[in-house]
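Listing S7. Sequence submitted for prediction.
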Amino acid sequence: MAERYDRLDENQPKAPLIQMERIVKTFRTPAGDFTALRGIDADFYPGEFVSVVGRSGSGKSTLVNMITGIDRPTSGEVNVDGAAIHQMDESKMSKWRGRNLGIVFQFYQLLPMLSLLENVLLPMDLNGEIPVDEREERAMALLELVGLADQAHDMPSAVSGGEQQRAAVARALANDPPIVVADEPTGNLDSQTAETVFGIFNELIERGKTVIMVTHDEDLAGRASRTLRLDDGEIVSSC
């Protein structure tokens, strides 16, 4: 039986927030089938800050894409807070994702024709969970959290890459999701700005969020509460 990788802290909650069971992901390519994940078993607990590390091509992004529903497993199960997301169709997945996940990408993916404030408002408008008369105040509070209240009405092109990434973090929090997934969020940032973004993630943990971060930065990874290391599509350590 494959070893299960989860948190070994004796104070951990009994029930994991995210459960990955026997996850296999195979991609079909012109060169033939490529298996990115090979029987992954892993649990993630509420309030954890987990970094996911490994060489390029080890399966890091594919693993977190199983949680976000961006990719679907070839076989296996992904359950998040009791929801079997591997069984959801795209319509259900979109609604579920809007309520439960905040996603931060390496290349920000802010809409260039919208101001920073409008980018943060957009997920609230699409999801419809936050009352209309509360949305702008909430968006401004999130921009304040990431230190961008003064640039709220600036366009993405008018601010630095680090500021765009901080705005992307604010956008990810728009609907108050319990889980934040960040795929190489500091990969294009200088060390000082990366430190700022990392500090924001730590603050989210203090607010009760669960953060899962893919990173190539071993120093930042080592400062998370747990590091999951992948090699050739398998988890080789969790500590």
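Caption to Listing S7: primary sequence and predicted structure tokens for the chain studied. The CA atoms of residues 25 and 74 lie 5 Å apart. The chain has a mean pLDDT of 91.
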